[in-house]
Each structure stands twice: as C-alpha cells, then as structure tokens.
Amino acid sequence: MSVRVLWKTSVSLYGLAFFYFLLPCVLSAQNSAQDGVGTHGKKSIRAVRSELAVVVDGSLEEPAWREAQVALGFIQKDPHEGQPSTERTEFRVLYTASTLYFGVICYDSDSTGILATERRRDSRLDNDDTITLVLDTFHDHRNAFMFRTNPLGTQYDALITDEGNTLNENWDEKWDVAVQISPAGWMAEIAIPFKSLRVSEEDGNIWGLDLQRVIRRKNEQTYWTNYRRGFKLESLSQAGHLQGIENIETGMRFRVKPYLSAGGKQEVRRQASSPLGTDAFRTTTKNASDIGLEVMKYRITPSLTADFTWNTDFGQTEVDDQQVNLDRFPIFFPEKREFFLEGAGIYEFGLARAEATTDMKIFHTRRIGLAEEKIKVGSSEQKVTLPIPITAGARVTGNLQGFTLGLMNVQTDSLESLKIAENNLSVLRMKRNVFSRSFIGGFVLNREIGGSADFNRVYGLDANFTFYRYLTLAGLWAKSSERKDTEQDWVSTGTAKWEDDFWVIGADYVFIEPNFRDDLGFVARKNMRRITPQFGIKPRPRSGPIRQIRLVPRFDYITDRDWTVQSKSNHYTVRMELQDGGSFSIQPHTIFERLAKPFEVRRIDDPQKPVLLVAPPGDYNWWYLGFLYNANPARRLSGSIRIQPEPGYYGGDLTRWNLRPRFRVTNNLATELDYQINQFTFKESKFTDHVINFSLYYNFNNRWLTSTTVQYNNVETFAGLNFRLNYIFRPGDDFFLVFNEGRRVGGPLDGQKDRSLQAKLTYSFDF
User: Fold this and answer.
1) Of the chain's two ends, which shows fewer C-beta atoms within 10 Å, N or C?
2) Which domain holds residue 113?
C-alpha cells in the first residue's frame, strides 16, 4: 500500500473515531450544562462591607477586619495531593463602595525560612514565597484577573483567558498591596479598585475566587479550592465562590493617558574609502522627541471597553533576545509592546505548536508596526526588524450579548526609504461559550495596502471542547483571499488529547497549503501536513528525591500536500521533577530531513577566506541526545544548563550548549545570563557561535527599578547595550529613561553604530 493511500485511510479512520468519541461527550456535556452540574469548587466566602476606607499597611488590626469571615482549609496539590497544608493560611474579604480588599495571613513555623528576593514589577516571583488570587468577576468559569505578591510586596498581575490557554502577563492595572513579616509568618493586605476590573453592575452576583500559596523552601503548593492535580490555578472551573458584593461603584468610565518623550538618535555609518585609502565614518543625529496618546480608554459597558491610541511610541519596550537560527524556517519572536498585549487573550487563535517551536499563529501582532528587511552584509544577507510608525489604532474588547468580541483597526505610516506603503490592518474576533468549559468562534483578518489594489484577507472558524475534566477536542479551519485567484490557500488544525496527572494520550494535525497567505500572521512552513501522536505516563514515586517522572514519547510526521515525506522527528524525552523544585531531563531524538534544494547551513564573511557551507539536496538522518538540568529556584544561585550533541547534523556535527545561571546577590540586585554556544564541524570547516544575553537588575525599591542588558552575537557581528530606568510614581503611570546602543564588531560592517537616549513620561486622567 502506498504512503498516500495509507495516510488517507488513517485520516479517515481517525475522523470516524473522532466522531463516535465526540458524540457521547457532547450529549453528556449538554446534560451537565443543563442541570448545572460541573467541576466547580464547593467552597464559598462572603465579603463584608465596610463604610470606612481600609488603610493598606499590611496589618489586619483594624476593627473592620475583625468583622470579616475567616476562610481556612488550604489543601496541598504538591507534594501530597489532598493533604492539609503544612503551614496554616487564612484570609478575609472586605469591600467598600469603590474597592475590594483581601487580608491574607501566612503563618510559618520557621519565619527565618521565608523567601523573598524579587522587587521587579511583573516578575513571575518563581523564586519566592507567594500568595496568588484569581477573580472570575463574571463567573463564566473561564476568564479571570490574577494578582500575586511576595513578602516584599512585589506586584504581579495578569489576565486569564479560557482557563489559562492564554495568560497575558503584560496586563497592568491600578491596585495596591502592603506586607509585614513577623515571627509568626507574613501578612499581605491587597486593595483592588473595582474600576480596575470588569464587573457587572447588577447586585448580588457571585464571583469565582481561588487563592494559591507557595512555600518555596518546601516546594509546596497549597490551594483554597483547586488542589486537584491535572489542573492549574488558571482553571477557573475549579474555583470557589465569592458572595455578598453589592451597591458598588464601578468607577472609571473614561481614561486618557498621554505621553511625552524627549531624546535623540544617532547613526554612525561607514563611508567609501578616502583618496588616501583610509575608511571614513559619517555621524547623523536626529531629534527623537515626541508627544502622543498612549491610550484613551472608554468603558462602553461594564464588560465592553474601547481603546484608542495615536502616534504610538514603544521606546520603553524591552529588546528582543539575540538568537541564532539553526533551522531552515524562521524563528518566532513574542510580542512585547504594551498596547498589543493588553486584552491579547481575545486575539489568541490559530496557534499551532510543535516541540519547542511555533508552526503557525493566524494573528500575530508583531506584523503590525514592525517590518523584517534584508540588509547586505558582505556577501550575505541578514534580516533586521525595523519599526514602522503607527499613525493611530483603535480596538473594542469584551463581552456583548453573550459573545466574546475583539475588534482592532490600526493605520501605519509609509517609509519611503524602505519602499513601504501605508497600510490599514484590521481583525475581528468573535466567540461564544458553550457547555461548561467550551467555545466556538470565528475570525476575519484584513490588510489593505495603500496606493495599490493589493490586499490580503483571512477568515475562518475554530472550536475548543473540554469534557470529562481532562479531555480536549479542538479544531480550526481558515482560508486566505487576495487580489489574484488562487487554489490550495487554506489551513486546518485539529487536536484530541486526554491529559491528567498520570496519563497523556492524544494526537494533533496541522495542514498548511502552499498558497495560504497571511500578512497578519506567522507561518513558519507552507505546503506542510504534520501529524503528531503521543502517548505517555507521568508516575510519582512514593519516596525519594524525585517527585514526578514524565515519560511521553512524541512523533512528528511531516509530508507535503501530496503525502511525500519531508521530515520525521521522534522525541523520547524523560523528565524528572525533583522534590526541591529542580528538574533533570534526558532527551533522545531521531531526525529525518529531506532537502529539495540546497540548505545554506552557514555563511561566514571572513575577510581572509569567506566560507559558505551548504548541505546539498538529499535525505539526511541523524540523532541527538540532550541533557537539561534546572536548579532549585529557591537557591541564591539557580538557573539551568543544557548540552546537546547532534552527530550527523545535515552531514556535519553540531554540539549545542546553553548556560542560563541566575545569581541573586541581594534582595535588590540580581543577574541573569543566557549564553548559547554552537560548535560546528562541517566538511573541512570548524566554527563556533557565541550568543550572549546578560541582564543585571538593581531595584532600589518596588517603585525605582533598573535593568541593564548586554548582548553579543558573533554570527551577526553584533554587540548591544540597553539600560532602562523605570520609576512607577503612581500605579499605572511611569517615567522611563532608556539608553540603547548597537554596534557591529568585526566583519564588513565593523564600526557601524546606532545609539538612542530617550526619556518618557506617562500620566493618566480618569473620569
């Protein structure tokens, strides 16, 4: 039987099995949804109203706190599921007309062992003792606001969408926290204005609520409600209930947040040789001062918000990490700009991931306001990311008549020097919750290119069903449209997976046709059909240093649309989670790659002897064995180390090293290093890549924060320095001072520099 017939038969059988398996699930879920039976937590607490404002000082001695109901009974998820927490935790809830308050007491039998090291706003606080609370204000069991703090009062907040399928960590709102450490443990007092949330104006509504406490030195995770393994804190279907909130003021309806920036940019470029044969440089300095509207926000209804931005500036955005691409396909870079990150969960759709890579993302906001251009460097070309001015942008996000809605439109300016025309870019996303933990949705993307008749549109449907707590069934179909008529211009994905704390069983597929065009998305590889089954177990030893072992083989089988094999990867990773919070992995893999055309492995612009290393067309088989160790994050010196030899890599030999130490010098000073080394032996050539991303963080307190990043990449002959001072002078408003310098070191562009110095101030006005 031919490969094509075999795979068509297999796909048909998978489809029939999928249908017969899905039908009883749907019927069961319908019954569950109708009678209200679900997996939601059973605990509840009633908030007590206080007519006087609560002083946020980390103490719960005010009379109002004595009137509040006390919630106890935190239960372990790890290390002993279902057992009471080894340390007592209790919390209370108060509210006034404008603010919601939580008072949490974390008792500790050894207060000297309390870990608190991080002061950076929006750090995940993985190295510290923490308290995290999630608020499902519309009680839809899917979406929530997350707030986290440590014994230093450091703030972390995020938006949860679809039970954690998307976690937007760059969402920032106005809230306050104060903490105190005592011989009995530590206390946190948290104040969240109702205007910082999306809440219903109807009285008596029940909210979803859960709290998590992490005791880092014990690597212990305890929960008020959601203690079952196989679920995350973001799994709102497992949360408890908050009752009693009524007669509140939702507050802000209209916010204006302008910005003012001042600074300059400097370029140093090499000139043609002078008559004497010496190189000359030209320095150009430009004014980079500006004024604009960071955001104007209008709350149309309690659940629907409109945002507008004008002359948007992203000067304070963190720089991308330096990377070297060792694959034939492009690298996926995440979004870091604030305007596009707020509410980003609504626009997260059409995401297909392979192991440690992204195959596709239907809508990727980095395609707005950024352009990848090729520049000539000696005899080779390099891709650089250049900013495109954003004239204005608007969006509407939230809930409308039972639908989740996301609508965005952005106008970008032209760049004549790069022959980039004006563009109008828009996306519409709608989805509807069905059953208890599922949704169906649709989307339309559009790009109109100014001065031409060219356009690109993508439209499609998607769905995600969750049944029996751990079973996920998901699918997507999308088609592109452009000026010229094309065929083979669609994509499709599907997933069927069961994953609990012991079993992992599933399969997924990704079909990307050759002519699918998505100007607002990321598509790494076209003309691809990937089918990926996996089956494994995650046992937990009864004793010893290992907490859990993950044995989940995964098999990637990739063909073109004619079912001719192009790539095969077999993954046999064994991961061991240690009791102290560290982990160790052994990662044997086998790889098959078929090259239809030559693959440029590396081009080295050596003035003495330029080197071009090319793998000719043909079939390539090799294996690699990776070793990865992650140290206990509670240690002063933590981080990870990875070693991965790949003998036979495209006919050569490759060894990858990745060193990522983190050293906590004091509670104010910490350093992080990401050092990648790639050692190649290819035919008769040997060369080594060095890619360094080093960061130093010094934080005077929770409001004055600094970061310094040093980068080096010998492949692109690049060295860079980024310094950022952030003063949070009031919640939601900042002063930034940012210095950037990038220069070419060695190679044909040696001596080229780009520098910028910018100060930026934002100030918001709420009405």
Assistant:
1) N
2) 38-243
Residue among 341, 327, 349 at smallest CA distance from 521: 349
The C-alpha atoms of residue 396 and residue 300 are separated, in whole angstroms, by 9
* Residue whose pair of structure tokens reads 């086998």 in the numeric block: 590
In a domain, 77, yes or no: yes
Work out the burial of residue 732: count CB atoms within 10 Å of its CB; fewer than 13 is exposed, 13-18 middle, 19 or more buried: middle
Here the tokens at position 309 are: 């931005």
Structure token digits, residue 739: 């210095």
3-state secondary structure (DSSP) of residue 490: strand
pLDDT in tens, 170-206: 788 889 999 999 999 999 999 999 988 888 767 778 9
The two structure tokens encoding residue 539? 């046992």
How far, in Å, CA of 383 to CA of 301, rounded?
44
Has residue 459 been placed in a domain?
no
- Give how far Cα 259 sits from Cα of 275, 296, 318, 738, Å: 48, 11, 18, 15
For the chain, how big is the Rg over CA atoms in Å?
A: 27
Q: What is the pLDDT of residues 233-247, one digit of tens each?
A: 999 989 999 999 988
What six digits make up the tokens of 620? 């390539």
The string of DSSP letters for 378-436 reads TTEEEEEEEE--EEEEEEEEEEETTEEEEEEEEEE--BGGGTBPPEEEEEEEEEEEETT
Angstrom distance (rounded) from CA 157 to CA 165: 16
CATH for 167 = 2.60.40.1190
Give the integer Cα–Cα distance in Å for 634 and 118: 11
Which residues are registered as beta bridge partners of 325? none
Identify whether 627 is part of a domain: no
In the numeric block, which tokens belong to residue 598? 């030559």
Residue count (the chain):
767
- CA pseudo-torsion sign 353, 595, 600, 682: positive
From 588, 586, 596, 594, select the one nearest 568 (Cα to Cα).
Answer: 594
Of 183-187, 213-217, 226-230, 694-698, give the lowest mean pLDDT range. Answer: 226-230
Which DSSP letter does residue 513 get? -
Number of H helices, E strands in the chain: 3, 49
Contact 659, 643 (CB under 8 A): no
Q: Phi and psi at residue 527, in whole multiples of 5°? A: 50, 55
Confidence at residue 40, expressed as pLDDT on a 0 to 100 scale: 60
| Cis amide bond preceding 79, omega within 30 | yes
> In this structure, is residue 757 part of a structural domain?
no
Q: Would you say residue 23 has pLDDT above 50?
A: no
Q: What are φ and ψ of residue 745, in 5° steps?
A: -120, 105
What's the total number of domains in the chain? 1
Q: What is the C-alpha separation between 463 and 453, in angstroms, rounded?
A: 33
pLDDT score recorded for residue 694: 96
Across the range 533-553, mean pLDDT stands at 94
DSSP-derived letter for residue 561 is T
Tell me if residue 547 falls in helix, strand or coil.
Answer: strand
- Long-range contacts at 595-603 (CB < 8 A, ≥ 24 apart): 595/619, 595/620, 599/328, 599/650, 601/650, 601/652, 601/680, 601/682, 602/680, 602/682, 602/687, 602/715, 603/379, 603/380
Question: Is residue 556 classed exposed, middle or buried when 0-12, 13-18 and 19+ CB atoms within 10 A define those classes?
Answer: buried
DSSP category for residue 295 = E
pLDDT tens column, 672-699 = 999 999 999 987 788 899 999 999 999 9
In angstroms, the CA 164 to CA 183 distance is 36
Burial 717-727 (b: 16+ CB within 10 A, else e): bbbbebbbbbe
Which structure tokens are listed for 214? 């992490």
